[in-house]
Every structure is written in C-alpha cells, then in structure tokens.
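S1.2 Input.
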Amino acid sequence: MMCKVLIFSYISAVMLMTAAYGTPLSPEERLLRTLIKDLEFLEKSKDKIHFDLYTPNEKQECRWQALQCYLTEMDTLENEIEDEDVDNLENIKKNLQSLMDLSTPGNGCKICEANDKKKFPAFHQELSNFLKSMLKKAR
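S1.3 Output.
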C-alpha cells in the first residue's frame, strides 16, 4: 500500500512540474528557437547589406540542402555586417551546422548555386520563414 502511495505521489509531482514548466524541448526545437531569435538581432542590418545571396526555394523536401545553402551564404556576410553582429552571425552559423547534423540529405535536390539570388532582406525573410515552418513541424 505504501508503495502505491509513493508511486502516485511521484506521478503527481511529475505531472505538476510538466504542467508548470512545459515539456522539455527537443534539441531540434531548441536550435530552431535560438536561430529565430539570433536572426531577429541580425534584422537591423538588413538595409546595410547590398548584395545578392542564393536563396533556396526547395524547403522541407530538401531540408539539408537548404540549410547547407543558407549556411554557405552566411559565410559571405562576415565582411558585410557590423562588428556588434559578428557574434550573432557566428551563433547562426554554428546552429545551422548543428541543425544540418540532425538532418539527412535529400535526393534529387538542386545545388545552392541553382537557386535564385535575392537581396539580403528577402534572403533573411525566407530563412526566417523556413526556420519557423521547421519549428511548427517539430512540435
């Protein structure tokens, strides 16, 4: 009888903690939330970057290749952003790579250079939308 009371108490405590703090996030969800937040910091540089970047349009079916393309294009931004945004850019690149490590390459996906080039504000918006759609699917 005492054992049943202890088990019931433990289950109740776990349920209360889950209700209070929510369920723990998966590594993918944590990465996506962090990336979205870091992209918001980079948004203030949108109007200061004036060159075109390859912007993937094959999204979920070619997720790994899209992430790889975004990561490659982020490398080109290093010389174009202000010093205070360098840490955000490095975090974005590191987290994009970690997200790629959780994904598998798709078949029949085009290479980055086969995508259209877009100005940085459109590139930024596409990447943000892509990450948000991945977050919705991860939940």
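S1.4 Remarks. The radius of gyration is 20 Å.
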